[in-house]
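Reading a protein record of the kind used here takes only a little practice. To see the layout at work, look at the sequence and tokens printed below.
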Amino acid sequence: MSKPNSRTTVDESPGGATSRRRMLSGTVGVGASLAGVGLLSGVAAAHFPTKLDFDVQPENEDDFIDLGEDETVTLVVRPTDYLNGDGEVETFDPTERAVRYRFGSRYALDAGDGSRPVDDGDVVRVETDGGDRVEGLELTFPIEGTGLEGREESVWLFWERDESGKHGLSGVDTARVYPGLAEESGLLKFLRHLLCRNRNPGRGR
């Protein structure tokens, strides 16, 4: 989830990324992020409260997604603290949770769809602007299945608490989604037709 004073950088040094299946030792320290604003509506808001903290395209400052060029999208899920339904602080550590994520447009995820990660992901060291270094989970999702059409200004992530997929957590991050040529083909055909008419005003009469 985007935060004005928090920007993720991924440690690419040797040993910075480790297998998801490696047993982690120690406790992940993370600053509290207690404000979970319910940005979804209806059933989705009730079953997937907005608590996740993630950064889409972490190596791209503009969070740019090109549907015509990109085949996959990378994101990093960061640990976060939030208040649960009992008013108690609960920690979501993605390196210790089952990999049950769906990524894409809000409407696709509300409908039970969305793109699933290509694998279990990698544990990476991430650094925030506050200087905290924590372990997050880097995941890669195919573009296909996201429900993104272009011109969206935000992307969503759902984590499913169990295999039923009916309950869990959600998160949102800002992004610039650019449509591929397939989505613009109608406009391109119209412009090409208009250009041809201007060059050959006598044709078609």
About this structure: The first strand starts at residue 9 and ends at 10.
